[in-house]
Amino acid sequence: MSESLKLQKEHQQRDLETRYESSYHQSSLSSVSRQSYAAYVSGHGHKIAKKKEEKKLSAISKKEKRSYLAVDKEDEVIGYVVPVFRSSHLATQDLMETQEEVKEEGVGYVVMRNLFSREADFKMTTVKKKSRETSMRESAERLTLSKKMHEREEFQKKMNPDSLTHPPEFILKPRGQTVWEGKSVTLHCTVAGWPKPRVAWYKNNVLIDAKSHPEKYFTESQYNMHSLEIKNCNFSDTAEYRISALNVKGESSAFASIIIKRFKEGEEAVERPHGYSPEYGVTFNTTIIDKFDVSFGHEGETMSLGCTVIVYPTVKRYQPEIVWYRNGVVLSPSKWVHMHWSGERATLTLVHLNKEDEGLYTLRVNTKSGFDAHSSYVFVRDADVEEEGVPVAPLDVRCHDANKDYVVVTWKQPAVEGGSSIMGYLIDRLEVGTHHWTQCNDTPVKYARFPVTGLIEGRSYTFRVRALNNTGVSRPSRASDPVVAMDPSDRARLRAGPSAPWTGMIKFTEEDPTVGVVPGTPTDLAVTEATKSYVVLSWKPPIQRGHEGVMYYVEKCLVGTDTWQRVNTGMPVKSPRFALFDLAEGKSYSFRVRSCNSAGVGEPSEETGATTVGDRLDLPSVPGPAVPIRNTDTSMVVCWGASKEVKNLVGYYIEVSVNGSGVWVPCNNKPVKGTRFVCHGLNTEDKCVFRVKAVNAAGYSGSTAESEACIVQASIAVPSPPSALTLQERVRDYMVLAWQAPAKTGGADIRGYYLDYRTVKDGVTSKWHELNLQAVTGTSYKVTDLKENKFYQFQVRAFNQAGISEASKPTVSLECKEWTVAVPGPPHGLRAQEVRKNSMVLLWDPPTFNGRSPVTGYYVDYKEEKGKWRCVQERSTTHTYMQISGLQEGVSYTLRVHAKNLAGVGGPSKATEPILAETRPGTNEIVVDVDDDGVISLIFECSDLKEDSQFVWSKNYEAFTDTSRLTIQTAGGKSRAIFNDPSLDDLGIYSCVVTNTDGVSASYTLTEEGLKRLLDISRDHQFPIIPFKSEMAIELQEKGRVRFWAEVGKFTSNCQVDYVFNDNIVHEGQKYTMNFNKTTGIIEMFMDSLEVTDEGTFTFNLVDGKATGRTSLVLIGEEFAELQKKSEFERAEWVRRQGPHFVEYLSFKVTPECDVHLKCKVGNIKPATEIAWFKDGIEIEEEDEDAKKIEKSDEVLTFDIGKLVIKSEKAQQKKKPATEESPSKPKISKKDAGVYEVKLKDERGKDKTLLNLTDAGYQAVLNEVFRVIANSSTELKVMSTEHGIILYSFVVHHIEDLRVGWLQKESKISHSERVQCGVTGEQLWLKINEPTEKDKGKYAIDIFDGQGSVKRVLDLSGQVWEEAFEEFKRLKAAAIAERNRARVVGGLPDVVTIQEGKSLNLTGNVWGDPVPEVSWIKNEKPLVCDEHYTLKFEHGKFASITIASVSTSDSGKYALLVKNKYGTEAAAFTVSVYIPEEEAEKK
């Protein structure tokens, strides 16, 4: 090939690339990407170039008209290609044609051709010398190529897009769809046309504005593919949707219908499909678990909602988008709403709940493949009111139409008005940044809308509302969002953000023609709101107003007069809004407005028409009747008719009341706008009535009439499909099928089943045909009249009161031919009942095919969730039931059964669904009861009873065949199975199943032993025995009287008693006194005395109707003799007590002060009764010393034998002070020992008492004294002295005979010079002289208490030791210092008087160790030894001073000062010198 031709090829290839890239960038209409093009060129570049050389341009026929579908290598459509310019898509067309040729040609041929082309190209690159002939040939080829290029350009001109314009055409039209409520649906279509048509979507011929409602609609147009997504569908989205395509050539439309279906609550909708994500190369599947349910909270609480989100597969660094909605509105994080996403769990926390937070909450999980969502309702109850009867707080406070000094506040009325109707509302405002709320209105407003004026421009405010009734004022509502008092144009300018800096030029002139211009008249004045309380005016600012701001005056005029009155004289308003208050209700007014500025007040505006003061908004009408519909066990659906002729409807409140209670409770605390609401939080089995009221800004409507009473129960639904449809037996012309009952009965009993069949031939199935026209009640069916060796498929449906279920899963193709298997077929109809935490009962039906011999037994297998199959029992059971015990609570088990015969064990049955071993709350067991008539019965109660539930009793899990043995009685939720004639024939397992419940069942096994016990109880009830609370007992009374008594537990007024002695009935008489108190049930018999003939058996026989009772007491032998002796003694005592006697005999008592008192108590004495005391047989006379110790008070005689000792002891203590060597005297001594006696005597009789206080008696007194002393001891304490440490304890008294011991570390301490113990007064002490470390340890004092000892312990170690030892050292040092301190011990007088001229000599005795230093001072000045003063200190003891020839100047105050290291002391004295002559003159 020539070099020029090669260059031409390269140029064409670059042109092809350029045209392809331009087509990609133009409008993204091509479905081929740059990457696919580059990959294509890299593999087929040479082939494309050669193809373009050989291609001839020609017109395209209709048959060869190219498709606009873009396909991949597997011939699958991946997009659409709409040519904008045919010339720009030649490269794409060539690529597609080349691909088609590659598909048509053989792969081997293509490979060989490409290889040949490459080899040829390689050879052409060889440089050769051109000949003339070669040059001419290349010139001819260039001319031919130029001609082809010209032809191609002509073809391109013919294919100009302008000549291809055509109207819009729908290649794929949108399809109608039916979806569940709450799901999303997308409509797709493809539109072709040139120019590119514009599309619009319509709903029932109303244009859909997706930009205005992004939360509801989403539209997309790409590659001429158009889609409309409708999010979170509801009933109102059911409509006909139209897409209209329009261009210059015309318009075309396509239609599709969307139908929204509602599914019952509790029933899951079909999951949304998830699409392939090309960005990540996977399809994301989303699963939401641990879903939040319907929630209830109270105002002020914090609530969290959460779900666990599983996104599969997991892609690194990819997280789904979590979006929360409330009532379909996207939530954003705020002060009240917190959101958290942990990567696995999405949580929404509502801080400080308020009624505004009530609503339907939705969690939406968005992924690249689609989305999934979960929704549930949140109810917010009112907080408790502070005062009963006040209304609850309003809600949803909002601000509207904010201006410079004016804003409109709206709110919603609460659901509960309180004890009386709401009279009105009070509005409060708070300036942001302050903490003081200001009330905006003095008079409560009835209307739920109020204009607030008087705001300060530029400041932010929040508002709240309170409700008022006759009882009081409610709590305030939640505060509104802040609003700025600002002109709307300024607010819009602020929202738009900062603008670019202005760079123009401002020119100033000397005069501004607008300065001083009076503003023009306002325009468009109108009354926007009119109520009884206020009227709101609005207008537009004047056009002519100058550069300065404009304010306004408002004027009013009563219709019929010509007097205009300015309303706001004091303060003009800045906003073009104004609210007028204090207008007369029912009167008509006209209004006008004037503008004003600094230049003056303008002309008035046009006046409004006559406006009558009154509410323009009427109360809503009463809604239509409320109709409750059963929903779940705790909720009901309430529907009602919408209020007619209502304006600005806010919503509806629904109230519920238990029928007959008269107490109404709101179901919702936030108004709902629909006419259907699900009321949650109800109590199961309550009979409820409902009513509805509407509300708008004017107030509440009247409530609807009470609905019909409806019981809160789950609604009835069709059952779920049966399962496990299997073949049980087959013969030449019939088959036996079996299946399992539906897992969900729909709340009603399964009434039967219908089966369908169809034939199968060569894999082709026929239509389904009915098998049975009459319903099958069991779970198996014999299909007859089949053809041998033909294949069939079967399916089964269940039906109940609500209808027929969906069909079960069809069986595999089953051939009708005889089985030749020897072993039996599998059992069927497996079902579990009586499920408990550690056991359950499994029942099954026998196999329909027994094999070659009858079935002889069954084996039961079980396995845990991920375990292996294990057999329950070692030996087979012949029953078709088995109780499986030993289960683990909370574990799920799967069960199956094998049948066996002589040939072997057959295959397993269809396994049950996993069964959780748990005892559900409220589970009851069968109770055995025996009534008063002896009737034996079994009782079973069920609290979860439905309307059509029944109690089904069975014996050994089989229906009763002999009804004569058992009678069933059912009333309410209780059923009783009564045994008519209990016997051994009634032994077995009795079970009861409650139909139409969630498996409520129980059983009771009646064994022979249990039957015998029940028969005994029955016999006792038939022939009852009167019970005794107390059997017969005996009691001795005064005078020796004997009382026999017993207490009866249960009896009637007809009860009779027979009194029996030795089998003979005795009657009341001289010897016996009898009494039966039927009020207390006490039976009594009295005998004045016991004689020898009274020995024997005493019996009370009772008869009360058919009941009898007997109680006896045997008095014989020693027991009788002892009782007789006691009786005689009591009689003698009674005789003694007839005269003066001792109630308490003489005894002694030791007081806490250790005084010993002898005392006795006398009774029945007179003033004349003689009382005499004796000691050792000698009477104590009145003049005796001991007589002073005897006292009498309140019939108590006292002899204080220790009193005199105390007085003498105190006297001795006064005479001589107690020292350590003089121990205290005892309060009792041996001289007090003796025999003491007291005698009473008068004309009625005499008595005496004696107390022996010698030997053992005296020792007993001492022991008691020891006990009092020992127990009075105080805890050990520590005291330090200069000699050592003292441990001591105080006692109340001390006597010499008291034994006291000291212990150190449990060892007795011996007395020594260093360690001494003793007593000082009432102090017991232990002295440790010069203590050392060895003296540390635990010390105890052991005081004898008459029998044992009392110990007081002190641990002399640690801090106690340290403190005591330091104190000892300090005191010792102080003593040494005091003993060795320098001091003057004598020799110096206080005053010395001496005659002038004589010499004075004084000597003082000095002591100190070491020898002190001595000095003398006079008048605070030291003296020095000289001729006049002679100072001496001799032998370290004597200090002297000599003053020679004293004179008056020597008079003064002198002192001898001694000093050593332990101290200093001064002995002062005064020297007075006198002159004799002067003294004589004075005299």
Based on the model shown, name its key terms.
mainly beta; 1483 residues; 12 helices; 14% helix; disordered N terminus; single chain
Describe it.
With 1483 residues, this protein is mainly β. 14% of the residues lie in helices and 41% in strands. The strands form 26 sheets. Strands 48, 49, 50, 52, 53 and 54 form a six-stranded antiparallel sheet that branches. Strand 55 (828-833) and strand 56 (839-845) form a beta hairpin. Helix 1 packs across helix 2 (34-54). The radius of gyration is 60 Å and the shape is extended. The model is unreliable at 1-5, 16-127, 264-273, 499-514 and 1203-1226 (pLDDT under 50).
In short:
Helices cover 14% and strands 41% of the residues.
Main pleated-sheet profile: 6 strands, antiparallel
Distance between the termini: 178 Å
Q: Tally the helices.
A: 12
Mean pLDDT: 82
Low-confidence regions: 1-5, 16-127, 264-273, 499-514, 1203-1226
- For the secondary structure, the number of strands is 102
Structural class: mainly beta
Strand content: 35-45%
The Cα radius of gyration reads 60 Å
Principal-axes shape call: extended
Helix proportion of residues, in percent? 10-25%
Summarize the topology.
Blueprint: H1 3-27, H2 34-54, E1 69-71, E2 77-80, H3 90-104, H4 107-124, H5 132-158, E3 166-172, E4 177-180, E5 185-194, E6 198-203, E7 206-207, E8 217-222, E9 225-230, E10 239-247, E11 250-261, E12 276-277, E13 282-283, E14 285-289, E15 295-298, E16 303-312, E17 321-326, E18 329-330, E19 337-341, E20 345-350, E21 359-367, E22 370-381, E23 395-400, E24 406-412, E25 424-431, E26 438-439, E27 449-453, E28 460-468, E29 483-484, H6 488-496, E30 523-530, E31 534-540, E32 551-558, E33 565-566, E34 577-581, E35 588-597, E36 600-604, E37 611-612, E38 627-632, E39 635-639, E40 649-658, E41 665-666, E42 676-679, E43 687-696, E44 699-700, E45 710-711, E46 723-730, E47 735-740, E48 752-761, E49 764-765, E50 769-770, E51 780-783, E52 791-800, E53 803-804, E54 814-815, E55 828-833, E56 839-845, E57 857-864, E58 870-871, E59 881-885, E60 892-901, E61 904-908, E62 915-916, E63 927-930, E64 936-941, E65 951-955, E66 966-971, E67 974-979, E68 988-994, E69 1001-1006, H7 1008-1022, E70 1028-1036, E71 1042-1048, E72 1056-1061, E73 1064-1065, ...
Parallel strand pairs: 4-11, 15-22, 95-102
Antiparallel strand pairs: 1-2, 3-5, 5-9, 6-7, 6-10, 8-9, 10-11, 12-13, 14-16, 16-20, 17-18, 17-21, 19-20, 21-22, 23-24, 24-27, 25-26, 25-28, 28-29, 30-31, 31-34, 32-33, 32-35, 35-36, 35-37, 38-39, 39-42, 40-41, 40-43, 43-44, 43-45, 46-47, 47-51, 48-49, 48-50, 48-52, 52-53, 52-54, 55-56, 56-59, ...
